[in-house]
Amino acid sequence: MTILIEQPALELQVEGNNVHAEETNELVLEGGFPLPKDGYMAPEINSFGHSFREYDAESERQKGVEEFYRLQHINQTYDFVKRMREEYGKLDKAEMGIWECCELLNELVDESDPDLDEPQIQHLLQSAETIRKDYPNEDWLHLTALIHDLGKILALPSFGELPQWAVVGDTFPLGCAFDESNVHHKYFKDNPDYKCPAYSTKNGIYTEGCGLDNIVMSWGHDDYMYMVSLHVVFD
Q: Where does the chain bind Fe cation (predicted)?
């Protein structure tokens, strides 16, 4: 995938009942629906009445999220990640603009998320607006929040329709022992790498202090979006 960055117009004229962005400093979505000038108000609890990121709290999401991590921990291996990096590093799937990519995520609900069961486009906008409210002058950070999960399009048919365990969820290093701080750590015992002597020590195949550039992390949307971002085309 290649992302095209278009320089924003200085003025946005919207007819009828829609607003003028240059007059209100509001983010105007397609269809002319503005988000509040003061930004999105972040809730203190998740959609199910619990604190955020409580993976063991009983809710209608809990069992599905745990099953996701069971599959992820079993299937994410060192060799699998090397294959994915080679395949998706070609960046030959599509070429599109950022908003077009955002709209594709209207079709995706993240199975690993214990806090939200809505399409990912809502998460992107919530993240961007919350950060815009807290850091109004850091426009680069607003953009980062908006695009940070665009790599989740890997789960869509046009990008290979990878299973969600290969796209979303927490990331962790491979080629070394699985740290017990990982969510639902118990399922790693069924990962083929778990029994590999070379991968079973704290440092595994790495030398201490080698740096993240030399670490193989579990494959997913973060790695893919990083690859794409290195090849952004500015128009």
A: 123, 148-149, 221
